[in-house]
Design goal:
six-stranded mixed beta sheet; four-stranded antiparallel beta sheet; 3 domains; about 450 residues; alpha+beta; 10 helices
Length: about 450
């Protein structure tokens, strides 16, 4: 599967239709959640009155099928205007509710890993994300600058859709679904496409490159190629965001306690602030896409560290810089791009002391403070930038591992592989040049 995302240029009338569909999804979600909570409350009340389990009101299934069936029976009373929107709009809301309920259930029972997931909450008309997903009906491209969606019809795009159109014309792709989403006042459509990929080989299939990620310098490479600098787009926009935030705070905003609605001036100021945030996100995404594409197309094996990004963002001194660098997104993109291009992604163990280990003789330092930016080995006399030294150690780690165990293949799901470290002294939790320590 692959996603293709295009910016839309809808007419004012089409914007109204898009808003109706997104609102319909929210209505279906809130209706389903109200029904589920009412069912749970009824059963709990009956238990409090001593009703036996066998005589309780039947439990409502949380599956998508059951929720949709209940919606179809009640939609005439709940939403008399339901025919004005595609059935996919209501299915979007109910599907999200079913997924949220399943995540809550799995988290409570221990089946789901990660932080505990709470019970779903009602979606606000003001704060909820405007989005709707289409899986059936007419979903296609019309020429190179239009898309066609159920009920919404023909919508112009800001950019050419030729990349997807060529695949569809060649018969190597099939559109499975389309999701329309509003971000900072702009509408986007994302096509989920089933793609038949030709076997690819990287330009240097036997080459191994170690990539040391950091905050001041985004990526340092083991083969001597120029380091990828971190543009720090958020820091560049901080002054403008502060000014816009002060403007927003001076306007009459919404107040949930009194029910006060925001003024039009507040809405305009908030939209301007959101637009800047969206620009920062787009610039960061573009930088990461170009970086990961170049690495995946050229090298047969890419090695990065298993950074504890969740732990790093809990540090108030690191959080902003780490979030702006996008370490997690870099690893996510490398994971699928290396598979697309016939390469491998290796993940070095989180505790591998890449900065403390001499890339020449293998000596491991007990301590290496962050303020020390140059690695000096007392054993062999190596003098090297600590980030370049770390990148060399990452590449050498995989070369030794593969040489000792023979060629490896990636698993069928395309997941990244973790490479165990050699015995080493000290501990190492993250890589973040100039702001954190190993």
């Amino acid at each position: 599967m692959q996603a293709y995302r295009f910016a839309l240029d809808p007419t004012p009338r089409q914007v109204g239709a898009l808003l109706r569909h997104a609102g319909a999804a929210r209505v279906a979600f809130n209706w389903g959640l109200a029904v589920v909570k009412a069912n749970l409350g009824q059963r709990e009340a009956e238990r409090s009155y001593g009703v036996s389990e066998g005589e309780l009101t039947p439990a409502l299934s949380w599956s998508m099928y059951s929720l949709r069936k209940a919606w179809n029976q009640a939609k005439g009373e709940v939403a008399p205007w339901w025919a004005k929107c595609s059935k996919e709009a209501y299915a979007t809301g109910l599907d999200r509710l079913a997924t949220s309920l399943k995540n809550f259930s799995d988290s409570t029972s221990g089946k789901r890993k990660g932080p505990r997931v709470g019970f779903p909450r009602f979606k606000s008309k003001r704060k909820s994300t405007l989005s709707v997903r289409f899986t059936t009906g007419t979903i296609r491209l019309d020429g190179r600058t239009y898309v066609v969606l159920p009920v919404l019809g023909r919508i112009k795009t800001h950019e050419s859709t030729r990349k997807l159109a060529r695949r569809l014309q060649a018969g190597t792709a099939r559109i499975m679904s389309a999701t329309v989403r509003c971000e900072a006042g702009r509408w986007f459509v994302s096509f989920t496409v089933e793609v038949e990929r030709e076997a690819r080989t990287p330009a240097r299939p036997d080459a191994v490159i170690g990539v040391d990620l950091g905050v001041k310098t985004l990526a340092v490479f083991s083969d001597g190629r120029p380091a990828a600098q971190n543009p720090q787009h958020y820091d560049t926009a901080r002054q403008k965001l502060r000014r816009l935030s002060r403007t927003v705070s001076r306007r009459q905003g919404p107040d949930r306690r009194t029910g006060r609605r925001p003024s039009n001036r507040w809405r305009r100021a908030d939209a301007q602030r959101n637009k800047v945030h969206h620009q920062v996100t787009a610039l960061r995404r573009d930088k990461i896409h170009k970086l990961t594409t170049g690495l995946a197309r050229e090298y047969g094996t890419v090695v990065v560290e298993d950074l504890n990004v969740a732990g790093m963002v809990k540090n108030r001194r690191l959080a902003r810089a780490v979030a702006d660098a996008g370490f997690g997104e870099i690893r996510r993109q490398l994971a699928y791009r290396t598979v697309w291009n016939g390469g491998h992604l290796e993940i070095a163990d989180r505790w591998f002391p890449s900065s403390k280990t001499c890339s020449s003789c293998g000596t491991v330092k007990t301590k290496l403070p962050l303020r020390v930016r140059t690695y000096v080995c007392e054993t062999c006399g190596l003098v090297l930038d600590r980030d370049e030294n770390a990148a060399l150690n990452l590449a050498a780690l995989v070369k030794r591992h593969v040489a000792g165990s023979g060629p490896e293949t990636q698993n069928g799901r395309g997941a990244d592989r973790k490479t165990p470290p050699r015995g080493a002294g000290g501990t190492e939790t993250s890589t973040s040049h100039g702001t954190s320590s190993r």
